[in-house]
Amino acid sequence: MSKIDQKFRSKKSFRYLFFINRNFFFFFAIINLLQSQVFDGLTLFSVNQTGPGGGNVHRTYLIDNQQNIIHSWSHDRGAASMPYLLQDSSLVYPYRVVAPSMSTGGVGGGVAIYSWAGDLLWSHEIANELYQHHHDIQPLPNGNILMLVWERHLAIQNAGNILYGGEGKGWQQMGRTGVNNNINQMWSTAILEIVPYSDVDSIVWEWHVWDHLVQDINPDLPNYGSVSNSPNLLDINYGDVGGNVGQLGPNADWLHCNAIDYNEDLDQIAISSRHTSEIYIIDHSTTTLEASSDSGGNSGMGGNFLYRWGNPQVYKRGSSSDQKLFGQHGVNWIPSGYPGSGNLIIFNNDYTSNTSAVFELQPPINTFYLYDLQSQSIFGPDEPIWYHTGEFHSNVQSGAFRLPNGNTLITDANSSRIFEVTLENNLVWDYNHPGGGHMIPRAQKYSFDYLGMGFPDFINGDINLDGAIDLYDILLLSDMINGAGYAVNPPADFVQDDIINASDIIALAAFIMNY
Known about the structure:
Elements lengths: L2 H6 L4 H22 L7 E8 L9 E5 L5 E6 L9 E2 L5 E6 L12 E6 L5 E6 L5 E9 L5 E10 L30 E10 L8 E6 L4 E2 L19 E2 L21 E7 L4 E6 L4 E6 L4 H4 L15 E3 L19 E5 L10 E9 L2 E7 L24 E4 L9 E4 L5 E5 L4 E5 L5 E6 L5 E2 L3 E4 L24 H11 L20 H11 L3
Parallel strand pairs: 12-13
Antiparallel strand pairs: 1-2, 1-26, 1-27, 2-3, 4-5, 5-6, 6-7, 8-9, 9-10, 10-11, 14-15, 15-16, 16-17, 18-19, 19-20, 20-21, 22-23, 23-24, 24-25
Helix pairs in contact: 2-4, 4-5
């Protein structure tokens, strides 16, 4: 029998419980006020100093709601985007390489995996004459990693050319009329799925937008057709391609895709393009060969777009009034079991000229896991099902994630600010990283049970892992017991009986009040 059990079974237990119950009126009054407010978890983010290389200080932090640093990692190179914590406690970190092959905002080039102790376990770089990783990555449930890459194309690709598509697949040969950069190149978008720790060719699946283009300029060139009749393809002549002025010099960035997410239930991928102001969904169930075509996979559509939203003018439908996204970043699905499950969360950077917004989008998915589109109409919905805006604006990166209790965690990259709002748009948590000259690309918040029994040593009763046992732990424990969006974690079983219930609250309160 534990000391706690002995104490509560002693002849003095009635006096202890009477005092506890009398004082618990205050505790539970606070609990009732705060339940379904701030989600008590651990927030993960990387901090970059601004500049081409991301500065000289490269750290990733894991903090609690009291803004205590629970853990941190140091890195040799600056972050390209947000880090990801795996359930085995390792950290997946996209980073900026020393010598990228094409460079503009969001340039990366590498991905690394670190242990909880900070040891570098593995790294892989994609920064060569064919591809250049940038912005985001997405760890997959099977352990693989999706990487967003720029894909290089010349105007003319002759016989023997090693660039994707080979002979006859240059941008001019594919029907593009011109580019906006002196290097006369066009860097398109591809997605590469890589296998960490692999000793052989690590790419096991790939998708290239270059296989899914349409042009209405020259009937003698490939992909000729009606853009408005091809909503599942991308108009190769839409928008500018790069430029010559900028901190990083000339670049040939066409789409500037900046975020990637994966839905395991659908086996689909979502990406965001800043330059088209659209988000796209594609089928991941295809083989690489099917992904290069318009057939195959669960959808039967190969690698064509299943869905797109934000700016129907890109496929020559609708008007300027139908454009809803403006330079957005950060698209991701709301996980199963969360409020809004299956919907998409998007950070709309330039919602107005000086205000950003977060949109929750309910896509028109049908029972076949395809997306409804009426002939000659635009992909719905007309408006987001929920949104949050206010006194925040970022013209770079940024993002938002729905939390298990219905709150939304938002990152304003420019201001290095992370904050949490309820579905009623009430601000319940706010963090501003100290100092200046830096940015936070995006942040995620993890529940305390995320790492399960695999997370590092803990103090029994320190449920929020801040190194102290106090009222905050009682509040979180109450939320766990009452099903307010938190699964239990090992420190919550304070009496060590393998059951999480009111006895743990009573014992924890007695411990705190020194009984």
